[in-house]
Amino acid sequence: AAIADFWVSKAANGTGRDGVAHILHVIPPDEYATGDDSVYTNSVAKIALDFATRAAKVVGRAPTPAWANASSAIPVLFDARRQYHPEYRNYTFGQKIKQADVVLLSYPLMVPMSDAVRDNDLAAYEPATDSNGPAMTWGMHAIGHLESGNASKAAALFNRSFANVQQPFAVWTETPTGGTTNFLTGAGGFLQTVLFGYPGLRILENALRLRPKLIEGTTAMRVRGVQYRGNTFELWYDDTTLRLTLRAQQHAACVLCVVDEGVRKNRRCVRKAGDEAQSELGAGRVLSVSCE
Predict the structure, then answer these.
(1) Is the pTM value of this prediction over 0.90?
(2) Among residues 210, 188, 194, which one has the least CA distance to residue 257?
(3) Which helix (DSSP H) or strand (DSSP E) does residue 221 occupy?
C-alpha cells in the first residue's frame, strides 16, 4: 500500500488539466538520461498500482480508489509512426543511451506488446547503446530476441556479454575495459539470460510458462532447484524433448502438471518425488507448468 501511495503522490504532482498523470524529472535505467514520462518508470508505476489493487482484494480489503485512478492516468509513451516506445518524452530517435532501458518492458516487466513492436524497440536501441556500457544490456537484448524467436541474434548478443568478464579470475566489470569490479548487475543480466531467456521461463499469475531453446553450441540444458508452490523440480531439455523431474515437496504441496499451450492436451502430472513428466518440443512450442 505504501508503494502505491508513493506513486499516487508522484502522479498527482504531474497531473495536468488534461487529467494525464505525468511522472516528471526521472533518471530512468539509462543513466545518461533525465526526462519526463520514462516508459520504464511509468510502466513500473502502473504495475505497482495495479498489483496493490489486486492484492487488497485477495486479502479481503477495499482497495484505495486513487490507486486505479492513478494507474489509468499514467501514460506509456508510444510512437505510432515508428511503432516503437520512445525512452521518455522528447527523446530523439537514435540518441545514445548507456544501457538497457526500453527493452526491459518485454522482460522482466512483461508489458503486453506485439512481436513487431518488441522487435522495433530492439532495433531502435541496439545501435543507440554505448558499446562501453554495462554488460547486463546485451543479456536483456538477447532475451528479447529469444522471445521473438531470433536465435542467431540472441546468441550474438549473449556472447557479447563475455567481453566484460576479466581474466584470470573471470571477474565481471562494469564495462569491457574496466570500471566497477565484481559488477553484479552484469553477472545478473548474464544469469537471467541463462535462466529466463533460453528456457523461456516466465512467472505468471497462475502458472509458469516455458519456451525452451538451447544455448548456441550446446546439445541439452538442465535447470535445477526450481521452486513453485511447495514443489522443487528440475528441467532437462534438448531440441526435441523436455523432462520435468519432481525432486521434493513441502507438506500439502499441489500436484504439478505440464501442458502444451498450443493444443491444451497431453497433460502430464508429477505427484511425488522422483516422478517425471515428459513433453515434446518443436519450433515455437510453449509449455505451461501449473497446479492441478
Answers:
(1) yes
(2) 210
(3) strand 221-228
- String of DSSP letters for 230-289: TEEEEEEE-SSEEEEEEEEE-TTPPPEEEEETTTTEEEEEE-STT-EEEEE--TT--EEE
pLDDT tens for 227-248 read 999 999 999 999 999 999 999 9
Query: CB atoms < 10 A from the CB of 72, how many?
Result: 12
Task: Read off the pLDDT of residues 90-141 as tens digits, 9 standing for 90 and up.
Answer: 999 999 999 999 999 999 999 999 999 999 999 999 999 998 888 889 999 9
Beta bridge partners of 26: 35
Smallest Cα–Cα separation from 160: which of 182, 204, 128, 193? 193
Residue 142: which region, alpha, beta or left (left: phi > 0; alpha: psi -120 to 50)? Answer: alpha
Q: Is 31 a catalytic residue?
A: yes
Dihedral (C-alpha) 33, 36, 40, 42: value to the nearest 10 degrees? 160
Which amino acid is residue 209, in one-letter code?
A: R
Q: How confident is the model at residue 252 (pLDDT cuts 50, 70, 90)?
A: confident
Domain boundaries, given as residue ranges, for the chain: 1-111, 131-197, 204-291
The residue whose grid cell reads 524497440 is: 121
Sign for the CA dihedral angle at 25, 28, 33, 35 comes to: negative
For residue 181, list its beta bridge partners. 173
Among 31, 261, 276, 280, the one annotated catalytic: 31
Q: How far apart are CA 126 and CA 133, in angstroms?
A: 12
**pLDDT at position 265:** 66
